[in-house]
Amino acid sequence: MLSLLVIVGSGVAEAAPEATAATPDRARYDVTLRADSDGSHWSGRERVSFRNASGQPLREVYLRLWGNGEDGCGTSGSPSAVTVSRVRGGTAGPLGVGCTALRITLPRPLESGRRTTVSFDVSLTVPSRNNRFGSEGAFRFLGNALPVLAVHDATGWHLDPYVSTGESFYALTGDFQVTLDHPSRLRVPATGRTSTRPGEPGRTLTHSDARRVRDFAWAAGPFRTAEDTTPGGVRIRSYWAPGTPAKGVRMARRDGAAAVDQFSAEFGDYPYGELDLVMTPQFGGGMEYPGLVLLGTTEEGNAVVHEVAHQWWYGIVGNDEYRTPWLDESFAQYANGRFYGWDTLDCWDPEGWPDEDAALTSSMADWSRRPGWFQRVVYGSGPCALADLERTVGAATMARVLKRYAADHWYGVATTADFKKTAQSMTDKDLTPFWESHRIR
């Protein structure tokens, strides 16, 4: 859509967006953090500039402090893992939703199309648990640690609770400029294109430039490293803890590189130039972030292909992971199965459901009420449903569906209705019976 830019004072006004457009958008995060001696604590300043994409004035914004999700507000002896203080550009309210949501009231309503900035001090204390925001021995994982803007759309502010099984995350793309000051003995893989330069004696500054991403993650530790470049030109940086099985590391480097190029051909070119694979022997499963994945690695390998697929399904083609988890997890697992050539014939089980109300498209709120079913349905039935759709419309048509769906929502946010619309537009067959039989509602 063509927009006319008009400079007004120190702000920028644009052609009026739709009243229901997701906002705030076009965020820029400028972050400087300093680590302690082993990367267990990081503190510094974060500045967030953003635009009101909505057609209505914006009176407040919310920061999501997802790093507090596991422990909530903490205790007097053990405070929250993520704290924000010295807010400028607005007035901070009390923390809500288990200390994962901070409301900042703007000093005046932000008109449609205009930009403003808030800034604050941030302190991150890495939990001792082995988790996406946690640690394993001398290695620290800082996934979902950095405060990011919540989203407001036609349904209001998205302030859903944190879930440990699956994800609650929903963010629009933005640009991150992050400088991490850390001891030189620590290697620091991070989202984006990274470079290093000397800091104070014994310290290094790792700078990351990440464009059009939904989140920013990093790790820190005395990793071993290697670098590869795929035939398609993507730089793969591998980081692994000593003690990680060498065979598993080799498999991850090989399959990760091959998956990036295969998915680029199938879904659209990987746009970020660099991808970091972070591997340790005890990390549980895997976890995806833009340009960086965390991988528990054994002699048999790891979940690298599934996590690489998430670069497209959630990272580039966004979705509300709390309300529609199948749009990232089922799609990533379907891509994983295609990569490895899994036999999916007859894998769909029409009887394998907890009750009549359950759907492949159910939300994390629904799955939280059905313990044990999320993995079985979303990771199991979901890719089987997509494989059945491929057989229904034909492999060539399915390939066009996925490429069109990705292109239409590149850097945007997609819904189940969007996917169904794209699929139906590519075939003369009426897909209504298919959606009904596969509980895609």
TrEMBL record:
Details of cofactor binding: Binds 1 zinc ion per subunit.
Needed co-factor(s): Zn(2+)
Record-linked SUPFAM superfamilies: Metalloproteases ('zincins'), catalytic domain
Entry GO MF terms: metallopeptidase activity; zinc ion binding
Signal peptide coordinates: none
UniProt key word Ligase: no
Catalytic residues in the record: 307 (proton acceptor), 379 (proton donor)
InterPro entries: M1_LTA4H, Peptidase_M1_dom, Peptidase_M4/M1_CTD_sf
Species for this entry: Streptomyces laurentii
Entries under Gene3D superfamilies matching the protein: Neutral Protease Domain 2
Domain called Peptidase M1 membrane alanine aminopeptidase: residue spans: 269-437
CDD domains: M1_APN_like
Binding residues for Zn(2+): 306, 310, 329
UniProt keyword Hydrolase present: no
Superkingdom: Bacteria
Protein name (database record): Metallopeptidase
Pfam families xref list: Peptidase_M1
The entry's keywords: Metal-binding, Zinc
